[in-house]
Amino acid sequence: xxxxFYFLRHAETxxxxxxxxxxxxxxxKGEEQARQVAESGAFDEMDIxxxxxxxxxxxxxxxxATKLRKEITRYHxxxxxHRDKGGYLELEExxxxxKFGLGDIYxxxxxxxxxxxxxxxxxxxxxxIEDAHDDKKILIVAHGMVINLYFAKILDKLDHVxxxxxxxxxxxWGVIHNNKVEKDIVKE
Length: 188
Fold this sequence. Notes:
Elements: E1 4-9, H1 28-40, E2 48-52, H2 55-68, E3 72-75, H3 91-103, H4 115-132, E4 137-142, H5 144-154, H6 161-165, E5 173-177, E6 180-183
Helix pairs in contact: 1-2, 4-5
C-alpha cells in the first residue's frame, strides 16, 4: 500500500454542559473555519474523505466533501479519547486532565479512556484503511489528542505528546506517507 494520509483536526466546537462531549457540534467560528478549509485548496486532490463518528469532525469535512462531490465515511475508532463518562469539565480542570492523561498514557482521570487505549484503537483503524486502499490521498478528520498521539508515536515522541498538543489547534493538519511524517501537525 502506498497511500498518503492527511490528518486534519476538526474546527472549533461549541461546548455544551448539557451534552456529552462526543456530541458537541461546531461553533459559528468553527463553521467558518470548515468553510475556509474547503476553500483553501490544500485538500482538493483528496481521493477519500474519512472522519471520526463525532459530529464535529463530520461537520468540519462536510464543506470540503460538498465542494469535491465526495462521500464521507465515518468510523467510531477514529473518535477522540472517550471522555463522556467523566462529564463536563471546566477549562482548567480539563487541561489538567489532558496533561495527566497524555503525560502517562496508561493512566486516566475522570473515567476517561486512557491515551494508550485511544492510540491503539486509532492506529488499528488507520492500518485497516491503509490495507483497504492503494496509492490514494486520504483525508482523515479527527481530534487533537488522538491525532497528536498518532504523530508522536510515529516520531517516537510519546513522552512529549502533551507539549506537542499545545503547539497546534483547530484545523491544523499534517501528512504521513509510508509511515513517515512528511508534514508535522506541530507548527515549526
